[in-house]
Write a structure and sequence with these properties.
By secondary structure, the chain is of the alpha/beta class. The protein folds into two domains: about 120 residues, Alpha-Beta Complex (Aspartate Aminotransferase, domain 1); about 250 residues, Aspartate Aminotransferase, domain 2 (3-Layer(aba) Sandwich). The chain contains eleven helices and 13 strands.
């Protein structure tokens, strides 16, 4: 592998991880290794401590009063499945947006086949959503608004606070897919009136794959079915699933080594501060957008202002297939990107890039200005059809 490799696929999974993440996982595997809650010996107790402390860090990050309201999952997709399949029933009506990822849209479509009504509220060609548009779709049987916090295609951040206030005023459940924002955009579940928060650990929280979670507002779980049942390490004397959180939704041996890494990743985020991370990533976006906007044939999607988006930029070069552009970036310039539909066909239909998709660059705290400038120069060459070695 080239030592000059440039990784711009952080919206899929962040890389590299902070050294702290790797060290925490190694420490668990080398020195602890026990299963939390399954035994009473010191290694099991230490493993349980790691899990609980990670919950506490997540609670601090998202302004959640009770860490036990956070269910640890293997990713945001599992978290969304727990929420959607547990919450909705035949006859319910749900609102979502035209910028959704399949992790939310697919379970919604499955529930639609089971009698749940789904309305997709249109967004602008740049991925913007007007909260007022939501009001026109609300019906007597509307139960929830379930939407992404930010698009994984354009990076456009949706007006979560305004929509959350709208939902609370109308007594609707408000659920957020924060896969693209947890760790790089401030999230306050109280101030934003968020009832359900699904997040992943392997992106801007700098944890490993196989980690994530779901925050469930107090009282909401009383009417939520469980997606998976089994051993929890608690109430072993009964054969029924425990009713209390988080055990009700956490069956089976947890990914403790991953949770240890996630906790360390959150420590990194908290030590740097989300504001500092956000400012650094906004700088990278600005340099990139300013650098490519005058390239002949370049089409940039979403909002151009870096403070209105996550560090995600989708683009195309007129007359070139995005897959071919991504391949040239990889083979000739050692630049890793994500071409195609990025698992979000609804978003691409909204911005007019379906079915071919786009090339997506997604930056991270660990990227540099030099890397961005190198990518700009590479795209200039590709746009000209320059010969490569």
């Amino acid at each position: 592998m080239s030592t000059n490799l440039i990784y711009f696929d952080n919206a899929a999974t962040s890389w590299p991880k902070p050294p702290e993440t790797l060290m925490a996982m190694q420490r668990y595997l080398q020195n602890i290794g026990g299963s939390p809650g399954r035994s009473g010996h010191r290694l099991s107790v230490e493993a349980a401590r790691i899990v609980f402390e990670t919950r506490e860090k997540l609670a601090h990050l998202f302004h959640i009063a009770d860490p036990l309201r956070i269910v640890l999952t293997k990713n945001a997709t599992e978290a969304l499945n727990i929420a959607i399949f547990g919450l909705l029933k035949t006859g319910d009506h749900v609102l979502t947006s035209g910028m959704e990822h399949n992790s939310l849209m697919r379970p919604l479509r499955l529930m639609e086949s089971r009698g749940v009504e789904i309305d997709v509220v249109p967004c602008s060609g740049k991925g913007e959503l007007d909260p007022g548009d939501m009001i026109r779709y609300i019906k007597k049987n509307t139960k929830a608004i379930l939407i992404t916090h930010a698009s994984n295609v354009t990076g456009t951040v949706l007006p979560i606070s305004e929509i959350g206030r709208l939902a609370r005023e109308r007594n609707l459940i408000f659920g957020i897919d924060a896969a693209q924002t947890a760790g790089c955009i401030p999230i306050d579940v109280v101030a934003m009136n968020i009832d359900l928060l699904a997040f992943t650990g392997h992106k801007s929280l700098f944890g490993p794959p196989g980690t994530g979670g779901l925050y469930i507002r107090k009282g909401l779980d009383k009417n939520m079915k469980t997606l998976c049942v089994g051993g929890t390490g608690s109430r072993s004397e009964v054969e029924a699933q425990p009713e209390f959180l988080p055990d009700r939704y956490e069956s089976g041996t947890p990914n403790t080594v991953g949770i240890a890494g996630l906790g360390a990743g959150i420590d990194f985020v908290l030590s740097k501060g989300i504001k500092q991370i956000q400012e650094r990533e906004e700088t990278l976006v600005k340099i990139f957008v300013d650098g490519i906007r005058d390239i002949p044939g370049m089409i940039i999607y979403g909002l151009l202002s870096p403070d209105l988006r996550t560090p995600v930029v989708s683009f195309n070069i007129a007359g070139k297939d995005p897959a071919d552009v991504a391949l040239e970036l990889d083979e000739y310039f050692d630049i890793m990107s994500r071409p195609g539909l990025q698992c979000a066909p609804a978003a691409h239909k909204t911005i007019g890039t379906y079915p071919q998709g786009t090339v997506r660059f997604s930056f991270s705290y660990f990227n540099t200005e030099d890397q961005v400038n190198t990518a700009v120069a590479a795209l200039r060459k590709i746009s000209r059809g320059a010969a490569f070695p």
